[in-house]
Amino acid sequence: MTAVTRQEVLGLYRKIFRIAKKWQSASGQIEETIKEKQYIKNEAKTLFRKNKNVTDPKLIKQCIEECEARIEIGLHYNIPYPRPIHLPPMGLAHKQGRTLRHQEKLRKISKPIYLKSHDEVS
Mean pLDDT throughout 6-10? Predict the structure, then answer.
């Protein structure tokens, strides 16, 4: 990891914790705000620790883009949780052999950048 990339990653990590510190839930309820703040912190710690040994520059860039996208979406919609994919579970193909593999491939391709690491951690 280059020094510039390292600074960018550390800056994102600090930015997430600053957002968590100032976070207010959409409902305004204190319990929900505390729960969402804790979710933001735990999600950041989990994902950053999971990716700390990544050395491939393309994969690092992808992780940075995912982080930035999740930050922007969270701030825009005031929801810290990842937005779901609007695709029915078995809606692309029949549940048999090659078509099932094809459906899984299409589902993976259609997954937005801000959800790439969500299923791996959850």
Answer: 94
